Amino acid sequence: MKGNSRSCFNFDAVVDWHERHKFLKFELRLNIVNTYATYESQFGFVQRPTHKNTTLGAAKFEVCGHKFADLSEYGYGVAFLSESKYGFACEGNVLRISLLRAATAPDAEQDQGRHEFSWAVMPHVGSFLESDVPMAAFIYNSPLHVRTVPGQNASPIVPPLPFWLEGAPNIFLETIKRGEDDFEPNASGTTVILRMYEAFGGHGPVKLHVGEHVPVKRAYVTNILEDTKGELGLVSTTGAHSTLKLEFRGFEVKTVKLVLETEESDSDISDISPTMSSKRDSWV
């Protein structure tokens, strides 16, 4: 590794699995003492004890996690990063990740066959709340893909960012997608949905910047179903990007709907205003 690089040890596995009643795990015994370990959940994290002082605790031999599991103490910690494995465990100072299993019920062919997967071990400075483990887990699950660009292509190699956050490091921009209403038969415009959340359980102010090449006409805050709840004040600067100021509380999920400029007139704005927001009959 380079002298100034982060300590991250990546493991790539290719397994042809044909076991029965076996469980393949990877574990590390760490020089860390903590009664709780941390596991990522959707839009946050959960903590589970590292001891088995009760029969209830003994029955919880595994914890469901999304992209990371972390065992930390003051000043130091170690995280497991995963891109496709979602079972973790920590007993005492032994941190584990479940890789493959071979149960015969209810699925007699569970995990049988060839598998390719990766995981990583990332030591970090500080406790979990002082670390950048969630950010590292996002990067690990979104690797950079390199492709060849034809020489005659005059487009910029790195396009300008359409959206980015500035401010509290505990706020994450998790989703960028088209609005669900855009695909309705009577859709009257083009919208972009941005979903952000607070990852560490604290408050935080943040500025959401929108690139100057994204023609935003209105901005609204919505619920998780994208029903409009209120309009946001969009601060625009001539010849530069636009900005939205947002406040988050612990583990809050906030959804912002951006209405883009179209060739139609502004009369379509009333279709999505808070007073005219229509509820869908069904999301099934």
| Number of spatially distinct domains | 2
List the uncertain runs. Answer: 265-278, 280-284
Q: Report the sheet-strand fraction.
A: 35-45%
Order of SSEs: EEEEHEEEEEEHEEEEEEEEE
Helix content: under 10%
Fourth-tier CATH superfamily name of the largest domain: Golgi alpha-mannosidase II, domain 4
The tally of beta strands, per DSSP, is 19
Gyration radius, to the nearest Å? 23 Å
Distance between the termini: 50 Å
CATH fold assignment of the largest domain: Beta-galactosidase, Chain A, domain 5
- Number of H- or I-type helical stretches: 2
* Structural classification: mainly beta
- The strand order across the widest sheet is 1-10-7-6-3-4
What is the global morphology? globular
Which CATH C-level class of the largest domain is it? Mainly Beta
Which second-level CATH architecture of the largest domain applies? Distorted Sandwich
Largest sheet, in brief, is: 6 strands, antiparallel
pLDDT averaged residue by residue: 87
Domain Glycosyl hydrolase family 38 C-terminal: 10-109
Domain Glycosyl hydrolases family 38 C-terminal: 170-256
Keywords: Hydrolase
GO molecular function: alpha-mannosidase activity; carbohydrate binding
Question: Can you walk me through this structure?
Answer:
There is one protein chain. The chain is mainly β. It folds into 2 domains: 9-140, Golgi alpha-mannosidase II, domain 4 (Beta-galactosidase, Chain A, domain 5), CATH 2.70.98.30; 163-276, Immunoglobulin-like (Sandwich), CATH 2.60.40. The protein has 2 helices and 19 strands. It has helices at 55-59, 133-140; strands at 9-17, 23-29, 36-41, 44-49, 63-64, 68-73, 76-82, 87-91, 94-101, 113-125, 163-167, 171-178, 191-198, 204-210, 216-222, 228-231, 235-236, 242-248, 253-260. The strands form 4 sheets. A 6-stranded antiparallel beta sheet has the order 1-10-7-6-3-4, covered by helices on one side. Strands 12-13-19-15-16 form a 5-stranded antiparallel beta sheet, with no helix packed on it. Strands 2-9-8-5 form a 4-stranded antiparallel beta sheet, with no helix packed on it. Residues 10-109 form the Glycosyl hydrolase family 38 C-terminal domain. Residues 170-256 form the Glycosyl hydrolases family 38 C-terminal domain. Pfam families: Glyco_hydro38C2, Glyco_hydro_38C. This is Glycoside hydrolase family 38 protein.
